[in-house]
Every structure is written in C-alpha cells, then in structure tokens.
Design brief:
This protein is α+β, with helices and mostly antiparallel strands and 64 residues long. It has one domain: Alpha-Beta Plaits (2-Layer Sandwich). The strands form 2 sheets. The chain has a two-stranded antiparallel sheet with strand order 1-4. The longest helix has 10 residues. The radius of gyration is 10 Å and the shape is globular. Bound molecules: iron/sulfur cluster. Iron/sulfur cluster binds next to helix 1 and strand 2. The site of iron/sulfur cluster has 16 residues, from helix 1 and strand 2.
Length: 64
C-alpha cells in the first residue's frame, strides 16, 4: 500500500488522525494533515482505507 495526502485540499477536519494516528497527524499550526507513514503495514490497511473513504476533502489517496 502506498498512501499520499494533498495538503492543499485538506480542510483540517482531523478524521484521518483519529482513525489512524500512526499514519496521519495534523500540523500544530493549522491542523493540516501530515503523513507519518506512506507505506503502512498490512495490519493497518483497513483503518487507512477507512480514513481515505471518510476524508471530507478527498485529500487522501491510497494505491494498492
Ligand atoms: S480527514 Fe482529510 S480533511 Fe481531515 S485532516 Fe485528514 S486529510 Fe485533512
């Protein structure tokens, strides 16, 4: 799995960091997403897929 984020599209909702805090974080200054792990282990794929599906800005891309 390869994960990427679009910081320009992100609206700082924080859903992704709540769903998978080992993969996504939020920038302290404005809450914009920060990618912690672009190649998460298979055990985290389900949560990463959920985070991408529920991102209100569709700012998370997952390639498998
Ligand atoms: S869920 Fe989407 S909009 Fe919200 S912080 Fe994460 S990437 Fe940004």
């Amino acid at each position: 799995m390869q994960v990427s984020v679009d910081q320009e599209a992100c609206v700082s909702s924080g859903q992704c960091a709540l769903t998978a805090d080992d993969v996504f974080d939020q920038r302290d200054s404005d809450g914009v997403v920060e990618l912690l792990d672009a190649d998460p282990p298979q055990g985290r794929w389900r949560d990463v897929r959920d985070a991408a599906a529920h991102c209100p800005a569709m700012a998370i891309t997952v390639r498998e």
